[in-house]
Specification:
With about 260 residues, this protein is α/β, with parallel strands linked by helices. It has helices at about 15-30, 45-55, 80-85, 110, 120-130, 145-150, 150-165, 195-210, 215-220, 230-235, 255-260, and strands at about 5-10, 35-40, 60-65, 90-95, 135-140, 175-180, 220-225, 245. Helix 7 packs across helix 8.
Amino acid sequence: MRGKLVVANWKMHKSQAEAAMCAEQIGRGVRDNANVDVAICPPFLALQAVRHAMPNNLVRLGAQDVFWADEGAFTGRVSARMLAEAGCTFCIVGHSETRGRFGKLEVPESTVGFFAETDETVNLKLKALLYHSINPILCVGETMAEREAGQTDAVIRGQLAAAVTDIEPAELYSFAVAYEPVWAIGTGMTCDAAEANRVCGMIRGVLADVVEPDVADYVRILYGGSVKAGNAAELFAQPEIDGGLVGGASLDPDEFVKIVQSA
Ligand code: PGA
């Protein structure tokens, strides 16, 4: 039986002091929910503040991105080895924002190309994380244009297959997939629970195909995209949805704790 996993993605929000305060409140709030795994992914600079604000083991630490080399002349990058040393046990990979596939129109076209994440870099990052025993949370999802063109399943299949290329199935027991429709991220437009369940089931089928059935049964598949306290229970009640990746609503500790409680 797969346990639920609920992950906070704080993106580029919170100072170190704010992060510590918020993590402490979340840690206290989820004390009685030991059956749900909870992780917080703060900005890199707040990782230590969050780590020290959560002395118990109930909330795990995660990063929002990683670079695949262990060390070298890569100005501004952070490696999986560094994340492991910093106490991270989770890391988001291939988020639509790092892939430059924004659902929000206020991001100018000219900005998008600078994010430069590709299927190939996602694959390299997965390998680096697995090597350092950090659980990757791989994000996949379609844009609105792709959905309207009937390409949702094909786009996601392509993202999944590319991400796991040349990775031994046995290594993939520790990873999670987050289905994040790009059009639902930060827009308030949540994917209908039945459709989110269908896509998560489809993802499990693809994993059975391109990895192996045992791994597909074991891997947790999360939903992300405008998850809130008000819609979390319906989403998490779906049989194929094993939890959530929560952006905006995770910035408020009370709201995030309610989301965890719905799981
Ligand atoms: P959101 O973001 O909850 O603000 O829509 C989710 C995500 O980007 O992971």
